[in-house]
Input
Amino acid sequence: MAFDSSPEIPGPLLRLSALAGTFGTGVVVASAVLELGAAHWGLAGLVLPALIVNVLAARFAYSWLLARAGVTLALFLLAIALGGVVAWSGSASWAVALHVGGAGAALGASLLTTAAAWRGAPAPFASARDYLTLTKPRIMSLLLVTGAAGMFVGAQGVPSLRLFALAMTGLAFACGGASALNHLLDRDIDALMGSRTEQRPVASGRVSPGQALEFGLALSALSFVVLSSTVNLLTAVLALVGNAFYVLVYTRWLKRSTPQNIVIGGAAGAVPPLVGYAAATGSLALPALWLFLIVFLWTPPHFWALALMIKRAYAAAGIPMLPVVRGDRETARQIVVYSVALVAFTLLVGPWLGPFYTAAAAVLGAIFVGLAVLLRRDLTRARALILFHYSLAYLALLFAAAAIDPLLT
Output
């Protein structure tokens, strides 16, 4: 899916990514020559995301740059493979020479890629406000709340402030990157869905598709680098998987193909608690899974309430949301079913998450189910709006209770 057939000049973010790839590759080559061991492999892992970003950006927005970026990545991966040969051969001189030579070739190719990317005057940055809008800060804030709660539950108390700040920063980059790529892929339907979405940065043309692609990829890569280098690899992988699932599985495929889009796609929004828990513990356990499933079950009634409010906009864009395909009454019935299942599950996992959490789940859940039942009895936009807004507060308060509980016991 190319965005523009013209030979568009790379923007500042891709230029910086190309420069980072070249500088990083040079450092990796130097560390190989100096035989720095584990540090050498760690540096290689940090450089790889930048090289992948360059290839993806070239593939979808700057096709004339793809050959150079692709060769650079291929040579870098070859150098990594030759590093395995070095280990297998017991650091034989011929294997070391091949490994260093492969890394040197990757550096040369990276220099050519960077030189090509820096030719000509790039389009200027869009406004800071538009870049901020691309990250969907309101959605991100709720995702960060669930991720933070996952850290508190994992740590069974207050986690290290430094670790907490680094984990939340990396998670914010992942969420922001996924949202920017969502803006990019949804720009066609955003333009059809009325005033709520038609003025979004990419749909309105204030940010070009290439700029949005660069921004989304850069944030996603930065998330992986931050989390893998300062938190742990599991946290970085989980954030990357959630990012990819949201962009490729939900946005690119499910959203446009099935009324069950939000049921399956809800898994992407349920990843942040896993990220937080893994950041605190370096592993996953049942409490992390329970937090994941809470968000997973919460997602359908939350988004179906929104879909009832803007059903005509979804219909105009050809998006098969449940109210468009099955009607309002069936949607309201499904909202009640999922709301009951959600609240029942939040109470069922109470023994793992503590008494304060369980009490909060009971009170908050009773209100949630009550509002869902009222919506089914009185199918009006006002009722859907109330449930939609309450569902946001519900999730934030429920996860806050899960985070507070370890502090009280």
Remarks:
- Residues 190 and 331 are 23 Å apart (CA to CA).
- The mean pLDDT is 91.
